[in-house]
Structures are given as C-alpha cells and as structure tokens.
Amino acid sequence: MSKILVGCWDCDYCGADRISGEVKICPKCGKPRGKDITFYMAGPKEYVKDPDQINKNPDWLCPYCSTLNPDENKFCSACGAARAESEQNYFESKEEERKKKEAREEAERREQDMRSGASARSSGSRLPILAALIAAIFLLVFLLIPKNKGMYVDSKTWERTISVDRYQETEDSGWDLPGDAWDVTSKEEIYTYNSVLDHYETRTREVSEQVFDGYDISTEYKDLGNGYFEEVEVKTPRYRTEYHTETYEEPVYVKVPVYKTRYYYKIMKWLYDRDETTSGADNEPYFAELKLTDQERESGRQEKYWIISGGKTYKVSYDNWKKVNAGDEIEAKVKGDEIRELEKK
Q1: DSSP 108
Q2: pLDDT range class, residue 136, cuts 50, 70, 90
Q3: The pTM is what?
Q4: 242-292 pLDDT, tens per residue?
Q5: Residue-number span of the structural domain to which 300 is assigned
Q6: Closest CA to 225 of 27, 52, 55, 47
Q7: Domain for residue 184, yes or no?
Q8: Is 81 exposed, middle or buried (0-12, 13-18, 19+ CB in 10 A)?
Q9: How far is Cα 33 from Cα 246, in angstroms, rounded to an integer?
Q10: What confidence category does residue 141 fall into, taking pLDDT thresholds of 50, 70 and 90?
C-alpha cells in the first residue's frame, strides 16, 4: 500500500503560506485556491492515516472562475459551473503556464539582445584576435606593395634566348612498347604490391563490461495535483565495471610483388639540345638568327631586361626598359629586385 502525504499551498491573493493541502479555501481571506497556486511539501511529513480514502486524481480547473475543484466534484464549489465544461486539470494548467513563461522569456531575451547589440558583444571577445589579424594583414600588404623610389640609371642590359630541340635517338623504357621503338629488350620487374592475408596471430586484450549489481533504493514524492503527495519507492539499477582478458585473432598481411613486363628500347624523340643566346648593353636587343637542320626545331623564346642603379640590378619589363637610357633619373615603384613601374624625372 502506497503512503499519501499532505502537501501545502500558498494563497496567491493574501499571501498566507503553508496552508494544508486538505484545506480548499484560504483560512485567512476566504479565497478558494485557484490556477495560480502550486502544491509543495514543507515542514515535517504528515501522512494520511487512511490513504485508500484519498482520490489520487488531480483537481480540475473551472473555466469561468479559475477555481481548483476536487476530482469528485461535479460542479465548481465557487461559481457552480459544471465540470463537463472544464478543459484542464491542475497539471495541464501548469504545463500551459510553463509554455507561456518560456515564450515570454524567449521574447524578452530577443528584445534584450536587440537593445544591447548582442552581435557587438559576441564579437567583443574576438576583438583582440581580430585586431592582431588586421595588423598582420596590413604589415603583409605594406611589405608587398611596391615602394616609390628615386633612382639614377647607371646602365641597362638585355638577354634574349631561343631554345632548340633536336630529333634524336634516345634510350627509354616503359610498361608499354611504342610502335616505332627498336632494339627492344624486356624483363619482368615489380610493377606494384598487393596486400595478401598470410596468417592469423592469437593476441589478448583487456576488455571491460558493465555487470548488474543490484538496485539503489530512493524515495520520491509524486505530486497528485490535489493537495496530496504519494510516496514512491524508486529502484535505480546499479552496475559495476568488471575487467577480463579476451583472446582474439589478428590478421597478418604480407606485401606480395606483382610482376609485369618492362620494355627497354631505342626511339626517336624531340629532345632539348641547346640555347641560342644573345645579350648586350645597347638599346637594340635582338634574337639570334637560327640555322636549323631538318632534325632541329625551335621550342621557345625568352627575353630578359635589367636596369642597374647604385650597383644593384633590377628586373624590368621591356616596355619600361626601353623608356630610359643610362644617365636618366627616374621615379620607380620597386618590389624586391623588380621595378614594376617607372617614370623619367
């Protein structure tokens, strides 16, 4: 047989507190207990002598005057409204209040965030990091931006190169044999490796498991929603950790070579042969005149230009190089050893 205890409630009208749950009307102001009261337990436990006489169903809430009425009442004790018109009991009323309270608190939080600038506050903690990052970016930009510099042109030089390929016999190899190869030999070589299961090795490891170890008994008090509480014995399963040695089979793999035929052969290919380079310190750069055989071809051209100032050599584009002559004073944008832009003074 479960035990029933008498709870308490406080009058929301006059403030009288610790009114016995058995009392339906405030003894101080005469107001019936309504939807705004909450049952609780306080002080020494008071058990009901005959718990079988207690209705365990929650009070129902009058939809007209918000009075809480015992489950057995067919009509409201305050206004006489029929119970059939009630849509909520004590617990359902409390759940509705909880949801309304959460909605109000959420709305207040959003309004407070908007007023105080939640985004500004959240970024405030990152401000030192952000400031350091911005400073680093500015420093990097400063170092990378070309600097204006006044310069005197001591001299200037140029170099132009033509690369030449020659169609020639060469030795090569591969896993596939070209159709125009000759003097072919071949041999089986390792092409790749496959992992192959070789055997299993027996190993051990420590494993843990949770083993049932009985129950922990505790007492809780269930609110019946009518001024009374039911004493409930709660059994919580308890577990202990046990360790044991487990044997298992671990697969062991070996690398097995995969062989394939590799071909060695001679073949004709276009290969780099030489550079034809011209250079000078005059204002008339030119490329070398090529005299190619039918086994040669041009494979690319390069041209480089420099300005020497104060004993230092700077790379420069052709368009900027041809603007100046030795003895000129210039205003240049310099980055490292390169002049990006220049103007004659």
Answers
A1: H
A2: low
A3: 0.48
A4: 999 999 999 999 999 999 999 999 999 999 999 999 999 999 999 999 999
A5: 155-166+272-344
A6: 55
A7: yes
A8: middle
A9: 65
A10: low
Residues 21 and 15: their CA atoms lie apart, in Å, by 15
CB 305 within 8 A of CB 321: yes
Comparing CA positions, the residue from 162, 81, 145 lying closest to residue 334 is: 145
Q: How many domains does the chain have?
A: 2
Do both 174 and 261 map to the same domain? yes
Of 323, 298, 324, 282, which is closest to residue 161 (Cα–Cα)?
298
Distance in Å from the first CA to the final CA of the chain:
109
Report the C-alpha gap between 111 and 108 in whole angstroms. Answer: 5
Same domain, 251 and 302: no
Q: Helix (H, G, I), strand (E, B), or coil: what is residue 115?
A: helix
Neighbouring residues of 90: CB distance < 8 A, sequence distance ≥ 6: 39, 58, 59, 60, 61, 68, 225, 226
Q: pLDDT tens digit string along 150-166?
A: 999 999 999 999 999 99
**Residue 160 sits in the same domain as residue 179:** no
- Residue 210 falls inside a structural domain: yes
Same domain, 255 and 294: no
The residue among 41, 36, 45 whose CA lies nearest residue 13 is: 36
Both tokens of 75, joined, read: 């009509």
Q: Which two tokens stand for residue 214?
A: 């009985």
Residue 288 lies in a domain: yes
DSSP codes, 159-205: EEEEEEEEEEEEEEEESS--TT-EEEEEEEEEEEEEEEEEEEEEEEE
Same domain, 179 and 162: no
Q: Is residue 180 part of a domain?
A: yes
**Pair (190, 307) in one structural domain:** no
Same domain as 178, residue 317:
no
Tally the C-alpha atoms within 13 A of residue 317's C-alpha that lie toward its C-beta: 8
pLDDT value for 143: 52
Q: Do residues 323 and 259 share a domain?
A: no
